[in-house]
Design brief:
The chain has 10 helices and 7 strands. It is an alpha/beta fold. It has a 7-stranded mixed β-sheet, sandwiched between helices. Helix 1 crosses helix 4, helix 4 packs antiparallel against helix 5 and helix 4 runs parallel beside helix 7. The chain is globular. The two termini are 29 Å apart.
């Protein structure tokens, strides 16, 4: 999933996960007022849409919303980040219901597995293998719901982490043979790495980070802040003259 970023008109920051090496940092709440954001650019697939490879299906599967909606929100997240889980548990359900399921906005999920999180990359690959079978969002929910279980595993214990994600794929109703083949082949590793590279190139400093139009929301913001930003973006999009 490729995305272009427009000039930033608004940045709102809340607590977020970031490496402890002095690069991105955890940021306390702060906000900057700005003009109404411009409409969002449309994400473009990593793999050409005419193909039906595992990667292409996985790439398509991590989007949600009415295809006719022109406004996108790009979610950049890390399954092992506790702030990402907080956002998923406290803000995502209402946002999904009010804007995505209501047909007002489309959503795309990109991975930024931070190096300090030992199992985040494997979790991302597991979610994308589920995505290749059309079950990304179901797996996404189960990975976050079980974060306290797998995030406590020793950093070297990838076997236990993989077994736990395998069990989650069953509860998410991912076809077992397809999932096993995908994970064994590392079929979605390239997509996860491409997401990581794009996020770094776009100067994403922490997780979760959200792009809506020319607005950036950094960290686990409450639904009221998302409503304010998204409503502003949608209002601005309605005022853009139609192309002749």
């Amino acid at each position: 999933m490729h995305f272009r970023l427009l000039a930033v008109a608004l940045v709102i920051s809340f607590p977020a996960c970031a490496p402890a090496d002095g690069s991105p940092r955890e940021r306390a709440s702060a906000a900057a007022a700005a003009p109404a954001p411009a409409p969002a650019s449309t994400p473009q697939a990593v793999v050409p849409s005419g193909t039906d490879s595992t990667q292409a299906r996985a790439d398509r599967g991590r989007t949600a919303g009415d295809p006719s909606a022109t406004t996108w929100m790009v979610v950049i997240s890390d399954f092992q980040c506790p702030y990402c889980k907080t956002w998923h548990d406290e803000t995502y359900p209402a946002l999904r219901r009010e804007y995505v399921d209501a047909g007002k906005m489309r959503m795309a999920y990109l991975h930024l597995p931070l190096p300090m999180h030992a199992h985040a990359r494997l979790a991302a690959e597991a979610s994308m293998c589920a995505s290749a079978s059309g079950r990304f969002w179901e797996m996404h929910d189960r990975i976050f719901a079980s974060q306290s279980r797998w995030s406590r595993l020793a950093s070297a214990d990838s076997i236990a982490a993989r077994a736990l994600f395998d069990s989650l794929s069953v509860t998410a109703r991912v076809p077992a043979a397809e999932y096993r083949a995908c994970m064994t082949a590392g079929a979605t590793r390239e997509i996860v790495q491409a997401d990581y590279a794009r996020a770094v190139a776009a100067n994403v400093r922490s997780t979760p980070t959200f792009f809506v139009g020319s607005a950036i929301i950094e960290g686990s913001a409450p639904i009221a802040d998302f409503r304010r930003v998204i409503d502003s973006v949608l209002a601005a999009a309605r005022t853009v003259p139609a192309a002749r």
